[in-house]
Amino acid sequence: MAAPYNRLWKLLIDKKMSRADLRKAAGIAPNTMTKLSRDEAVNLAILERICWTVNADFGEIMEYIPEEKHD
Questions:
Q1: Would 30 be classed as within a structural domain?
Q2: Are 50 and 28 spatial neighbours (Cβ–Cβ below 8 Å)?
Q3: Mean of the per-residue pLDDT values for the chain?
Q4: Counted domains in the chain
C-alpha cells in the first residue's frame, strides 16, 4: 500500500505554510516529518493532528494507492 502525502504539501503551499511551520504547530517530531517526506507510514494520531492544524480531512492530505496483487 502506498499513501503519498502530495496533497498535504500542496495544501501547505496554498496556506502559505512551511513544513517547519506545520511541524511546530502540530507538535510533530522531526523524524516523523522525515517519514512524511518519504511517503512512509505514520501514526493515525499524527495524521489527525495534522488535519486539525491545517483544518482538513484525511483525504485532503493523503491518498490511498493500492499495490498490485502478486499471485
A1: yes
A2: yes
A3: 92
A4: 1
Q: Which domain holds residue 13?
A: 6-61
Which residues have a Cβ under 8 Å from the Cβ of 16 and sit 6 or more positions away? none
Contacts of 41-47 spanning 24+ positions with Cβ under 8 A: 41/3
**71 falls within a domain:** no
- Residues 5, 70: contact at Cβ < 8 Å? no
Longest dimension (CA), the chain: 45
Cα(13)–Cα(16) distance, rounded to whole angstroms?
5
Mean pLDDT, residues 25-35: 96
What φ, ψ does residue 28 adopt, rounded to 5°?
-100, 135
What pTM does this model have? 0.85
For residue 1, what pLDDT band results from cuts at 50, 70 and 90? low
